[in-house]
Amino acid sequence: MKPQYRLTTTAMIGVCAALVSGTGIAAGEPVAGTGDYDALDYAVSLEYRSGTREMAGTTTLKARAAEPLSGFALDFAGGKVGEVTVDGRPAGFETRGEKLLVFPHRLAGGTEFTVTVDYLVTRTNGPDGHGPWREIEDGFALGPQMYETMHHVFPCKNDIADKATYTFTITAPARLTGIATGDLIATTPLGGDRTARTYRMAYPMPVDDGQIAVGPYSWITRGGPDGVTIRDVVPTAQADRLRETLARTDDQLRWLTAKLGPYPFGTYGIFAPLGTISPFESQTMSTIQAATLSAGPADYVRVHELTHQWFGASVTQKTLADNWIAEGHAHFYGAWYDAGQSRPGSEDAFADSMRMFYGIDQKTRDREGPPAAPKPISGQTQRAGGALALYALRQTVGPRMFEEIERAVAARFKGGLASTADYIKTAREVAGRDVTALLTDWLYAKKTPPMPGHPDWKPDGAAS
């Protein structure tokens, strides 16, 4: 959705159920009679066959009971369930709306258990076209996370704060390539001219931060800055044409690493899908169409999505209200890098970009609420409003101290969760001064605060 900026990384969780849920219990809603558990690891196997939108699937979830369990719920809206076992024993189950309710032998609190579900998933979006599936002539990909994607693909715990590790095995005709988030660890030829590719995501990942696709794609792999492996996935027929523009990732990765600290994963790349898909980030991979890579706002788009590897994937927001941490950072650094391309090294170019968003911030707050207390339907306040909060902090503490704060947040919460309170506390501790009031105003106030260092800026865009 660039340059309008994307509604992703759960920025629209509040509206998702209305978009994609059917009757019954929507994904993410609690169910009476079921208990809580922590997801630890998923093994997901899917088989794509040409000419049908149905895929056989098996998902095995390793989990730990957070309390004594006589029943628990998985989120699943993708198709028909065939069999469910818990620790290898058949378990009772039923489906209600977007919930798969499982009734195993009683599990004591703290017990680790394994649930395996065999199912048939159907790649069908809602009657209004909303949904995660993006079909091509022979293959598919997943669309942005605003559709709460993964519970349409496999049974899971639809909670972005419950991060887990993943193994994806995608089986497809040998002429096509199965793609998934993670490192490719096995390619296995099968009978019937099929190939299974297995990917491992060893870093804990939010449930909706993955990508799965099948199509006529090829890998382009090379060494990147600081030992990072750059691994792009592109349409085979366009590979040669895209190599030059894909090489720009190196500069963008160096630029962000200098500001945020080491890249949090071992690999990164761009998936350039066929078909029409708005840009979005998944852990270690950004989905950006080939046409967008060569368009005018490409630098903004690419750095926006790359920033999400630090804020969104590695440092994951605890709740929807904390989502400004992901979207605000992505917009802040995307706009900063893009401004620097027009006027290299110019602080004025970045300030001009921030001033434009400052000018419409009050209207955005009136419509969507403040960045850390958004209304259910919001897209701009956490993105642009969050970026303005970061800019105000930088204006207050200075560029060098701001960089220290950012690097500290990225390091302290690497691989985990961070809240708005966590960010404010870290900023206060690293800066050695109380910036609580400043950040509280920018993140929670109904009225746009004055921008430090720019007394001439007006929330309505008017000159002083």
From TrEMBL:
Keywords on record: Aminopeptidase, Hydrolase, Protease, Signal
EC number(s) recorded for this UniProt protein: 3.4.11.-
The keyword Heme appears for this protein: no
Signal peptide per UniProt: 1-26
Keyword match Chloroplast: no
Pfam families named in the record: Peptidase_M1 (PF01433)
Sequence ranges assigned to domain Peptidase M1 membrane alanine aminopeptidase in this UniProt record: 301-442
Main enzyme class: hydrolase
InterPro entries: Aminopeptidase_N-like_N_sf, M1_LTA4H, Peptidase_M1_dom, Peptidase_M4/M1_CTD_sf
GO molecular function, one term: aminopeptidase activity
PANTHER family reported for this sequence: LEUKOTRIENE A-4 HYDROLASE (PTHR45726)
Protein name in UniProt: M1 family metallopeptidase
Lineage of the species this protein comes from: Bacteria, Bacillati, Actinomycetota, Actinomycetes, Pseudonocardiales
